[in-house]
């Protein structure tokens, strides 16, 4: 690991293929040890600072390689910088299992969540493909992390939602900001920045655009990529929302208002019955209220 200080001087693009392979494999080795909660050989000798320097050198050397296997090796380092997060996010569906593994193994959960949020935004911008299943898993992980009380999870939630740039998350962001304020949590500043960004994005959306975004999140909740489709109340709300959206897009404002109001009523009933969580209810009911306020 004493070679760490020299890694930054390398020109990875000019390396022979075998040397580039060795760099990638070494980064994988380091990440495997960390994900397994194991110390690296020689770690005590170089100390924490030396280890961080060594890892950073490896990461940026591998980042300079224009190779798909290099991108995959970077997944556990997604939280080290925006450039690395972007490279990992561009993998789309292929990166999701590795990012979920980071969270499951309690390894930089905030960095993993932020990369998943960035992936969402890239897909919305048409830069990558992201399956509905992956979106459903991302939504589930964001909402699940919001129910915990770990600082890393709360920072991850705010960073992920901010990275999505999706105004459909605005009601959730408002609710989360209030939760962070009530808890006097250190993530409050991050939550407020996220809220400000989403409010700005939402201000530039049409009522139909806002409604489509909220409907997409509702559809993902009802599909439930982790446990299977949710029938009953969720399906009923989705059907009513579909009717409201079709009226809105067709310019039938009166029927659209009536149908959206019914969506709110059904969402309220689902919350009281335990069919929707508080965060899910906020996304749907408050999202619809935002649409109604803009019509």
Describe this structure in words.
The protein has 295 residues and is mainly α. It has 15 helices and no strands. The protein is elongated, with a radius of gyration of 22 Å. The N and C termini lie far apart (61 Å). 43% of the residues are buried. Residues 1-5 have low confidence and may be disordered.
How is this fold's topology laid out?
Elements: H1 4-7, H2 17-35, H3 43-63, H4 68-73, H5 82-89, H6 96-104, H7 109-124, H8 132-146, H9 151-164, H10 170-182, H11 188-203, H12 207-223, H13 233-249, H14 253-273, H15 278-294
Helix pairs in contact: 2-3, 5-7, 6-7, 7-8, 7-9, 8-9, 8-12, 9-11, 10-11, 10-15, 12-13, 12-15, 13-14, 14-15
* Rg estimate, integer Å: 22 Å
- Beta fraction: under 5%
Order of helices and strands: HHHHHHHHHHHHHHH
Q: How confident is the prediction overall: mean pLDDT?
A: 90
Q: Briefly note the structural class of the backbone.
A: mainly alpha
Oligomer category: single chain
Q: Note the overall shape.
A: elongated
Helix content: over 70%
Uncertain segments of ≥5 residues (pLDDT<50)? 1-5
The termini sit apart by 61 Å
Secondary structure tally: strands:
0
Largest sheet: none
DSSP summary: helix tally: 15
TL;DR?
The chain is mainly alpha-helical and 295 residues long. The protein has 15 helices and no strands.
Q: Which labels suit this protein?
A:
295 residues; 15 helices; disordered N terminus; mainly alpha
């Amino acid at each position: 690991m004493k070679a760490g200080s020299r890694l930054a001087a390398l020109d990875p693009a000019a390396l022979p293929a075998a040397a580039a392979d060795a760099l990638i494999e070494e980064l994988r080795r380091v990440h495997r040890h960390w994900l397994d909660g194991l110390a690296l050989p020689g770690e005590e000798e170089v100390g924490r600072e030396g280890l961080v320097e060594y890892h950073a050198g490896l990461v940026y050397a591998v980042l300079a390689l224009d190779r798909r296997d290099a991108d995959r090796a970077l997944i556990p380092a997604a939280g080290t910088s925006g450039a690395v997060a972007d490279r990992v996010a561009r993998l789309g569906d292929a990166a999701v299992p590795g990012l979920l593994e980071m969270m499951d193994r309690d390894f930089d959960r905030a960095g993993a969540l932020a990369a998943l949020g960035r992936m969402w935004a890239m897909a919305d911008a048409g830069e990558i493909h992201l399956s509905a299943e992956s979106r459903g898993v991302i939504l589930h992980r964001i909402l699940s992390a919001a129910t915990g009380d770990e600082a890393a999870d709360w920072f991850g939630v705010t960073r992920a939602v901010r990275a999505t740039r999706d105004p459909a998350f605005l009601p959730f962001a408002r609710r989360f900001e209030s939760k962070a304020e009530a808890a006097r949590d250190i993530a409050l500043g991050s939550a407020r920045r996220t809220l400000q960004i989403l409010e700005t994005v939402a201000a530039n959306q049409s009522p139909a655009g806002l409604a489509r975004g909220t409907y997409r999140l509702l559809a993902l909740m009802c599909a439930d990529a982790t446990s299977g489709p949710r029938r009953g109340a969720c399906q009923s709300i989705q059907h009513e929302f579909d009717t409201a959206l079709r009226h809105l897009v067709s310019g039938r404002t009166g029927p659209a208002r009536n149908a959206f109001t019914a969506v709110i009523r059904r969402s309220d009933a689902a919350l009281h019955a335990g069919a929707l969580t508080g965060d899910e209810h906020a996304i749907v009911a408050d999202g619809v209220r935002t649409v109604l306020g803009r019509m």
